[in-house]
Amino acid sequence: MQQNMIPGWLEPAIINPIATKSSFSLEKQHELGIEALLVAAEAAITISRFDLARSIATKIAEHEQRYTFPYCCYVLSLSARLHLHAGHSENGIRGFREAIECASSGLERALFHYQWATALECIGNYSDALEHYRHALTLLHPSDHLGIALVRSSIARIQCQLEDVTSAEDTLQLANDYYNSSFGLATIYLAKATAALQAGSTERVIEYLNLAASLFSSEQESLLKVIHDLILCKTYLNQARWDDAGSLAEAIITITEYHELPYHAALARHTYGLVFVDDRSPYYSPPLALEHFQRSLRHLDHLPYCTFKQSLYRTLAETYAKIGHRDKAYTYLERYCSFITHAYSHRTFHHLKRIELEVATHNLRLEVERERNHSQQLQMQLECAHSTAEKYRQRLDEQIAYLGVVAHDLKNPIAAIMMSASILERYNHKLSRDDFEKHISTIIRTAEWMKQLVTGLLDFTALTTGKLKLNIEPVYAQMSLDAVIEAYKVKALAKSLTIHRDYPTEPLYVLADSQRLHECLDNLISNAIKYTPLGRNIYCSIEEQDECVRFAIRDEGPGLTIEEQQKLFQEFSRARSRDTGSEGGTGLGLSIVRRFVEAMGGSVGCNSILGHGSTFFVVLPRVTRHLIEEDSNNCTHTVQMPTQTESSVQVINK
């Protein structure tokens, strides 16, 4: 008995999404069952009509069968993909994990891994997409020819994107023995044509395209036919067959715009524009090319994280530069750079979340094993602990006091979480989608705040008990500060803050623990962003001072009084300002910065005048480049933190 990754009721949306979408009526949504709505939404996503998919998803959210088995996991997968395409990475990851967990079979899990991978591929996260495609492949049954065709052709497509044509050809070669369906075989031929196009083998491209075309249905347009024509059009361009390329591109544009295929219409417009931008073409006309590139970009307005936008921005920048419009060229080059930055941010977030889960699971297993192996030793240690109880009574009292501070700070966020959770529990079916998401966001944001409070307390406890070790080594100063600034670009952008940098041209190295130095600079820049009003500036500088290097972070916040400066680096001291909404915390952040910096042989201080902002600085020992080269094979030293560090803090008033 054949087992398929894609259930029969969902196949039409994959095999011929154009016909499936055309048969769907917005006016009759309320009459359709849950299966028909899911099929229509799948078809809309396949042809990149995310606006239509969101409209259908809204109807699905109101459908009484959305929680019934097996549709609940398909609803979760649909929601997760829409979140990813909208840039909500965390919600997307959570949705896919829930869908996979509630799947009833390996084939369903394979489908959800496949859908996850297609969404990641669309936003340019090729490494994680490749991992999920391969995971899906391991879950497929050998008799699932269609599923294997889709997954292997997708793997090969990504390998081509990564310019690994040899691996793509090997992947497709493994697929030859599996297929007996025309759709699956046509999909493989198109993937082979793409790989051949990437390798520059025109004859093989034409051969594979002809084989694919022989399998197409002549009764109706299909998405495979559109993809076939796009590959053929690019082949004509490579052969400098300008008339053929232009005629075919015009035909593709007509079909894709008629059937409302925005992504493929954008590809067609871009390809048509290349006919006019190539100076070898007899139709060379940069203004006409720009018109088609701009129309291509408009087709992608509703796809904020589509990687094809990146190519369009670069093409527009190059074309405007070619005709001397440097201002517009610079504008699109800025958009190109901004898009790359945002794309890397989303990919990094997704990757870190996955690693975080794996590390947490691994640590939990190690912890359970450790507790099991040392239970007897712990019993013996407990007996010895009674004899030293009095010695640690005072320290225990201090820790209780610290916990009391944290407990007080956690009271309000816990109350906020409980209130939002109570509203969701009582009024779940009455809340609008926006209100529901608002309460969920409140819970997540508040929980992250609680996590920061607890992390700060744990760092402080490790410092005061002397259990934290520092690895002292030469650290590249400019790179360390740059890394922190890059991490806070999005938060600064959200408050319209401009971060300025003033570095010496010569590389400077300091003797420090790179991780703890990063945490110290992170704390200072985070505070600067927190306390600087909207639309102002933050100035980050590095300068050489004798045998030291000075990092300085200057904000345009409300400044500090003399009394606040004197208590600034003490434990549980907080500088609350009326101008910043009384930002709160444990009061441990700057105290931890002071202890880290002093343990690394440096000093920390603050210059501030009330009403004129503040400058926080960190001074660390400088390491000469000569010493770095001499000690390159053995430059890491372990330093034991002292139990209590009582050092003076430099406070300078302008």
Report on the structure:
The protein has 654 residues and is an alpha+beta fold. It has 27 helices and 9 strands. The longest helix is centred in the middle third of the chain and has 48 residues, at 326-373.
Class by alpha and beta content: alpha+beta
State Rg: 30 Å
Total number of strands: 9
The helix count comes to 27
The residue ranges in which pLDDT falls below 50 over 5 or more consecutive positions are 576-583, 635-654
Main sheet characteristics: 9 strands, mixed
How confident overall, as mean pLDDT?
82
First and last CA, distance? 83 Å
Helix fraction bin: 55-70%
Strand content: 5-15%
- Global geometry: globular
Write the layout of secondary structure elements.
Elements: H1 11-15, H2 17-22, H3 34-46, H4 50-61, H5 71-85, H6 89-102, H7 106-122, H8 126-139, H9 145-161, H10 165-173, H11 182-199, H12 202-213, H13 223-238, H14 242-258, H15 262-277, H16 286-299, H17 308-322, H18 326-373, H19 375-385, H20 393-427, H21 433-464, E1 469-476, H22 477-487, H23 489-494, E2 498-502, E3 509-512, H24 514-531, E4 537-545, E5 548-554, H25 562-567, H26 589-599, E6 603-608, E7 614-623, H27 625-630, E8 637-640, E9 650-652
Parallel strand pairs: 2-4, 6-9
Antiparallel strand pairs: 1-3, 1-8, 3-7, 4-5, 5-7, 6-7
Which features characterize this protein?
disordered C terminus; 9 strands; globular; alpha+beta; nine-stranded mixed beta sheet; 654 residues; 63% helix; single chain; 27 helices
What is the gist of this entry?
The chain is of the alpha+beta class.
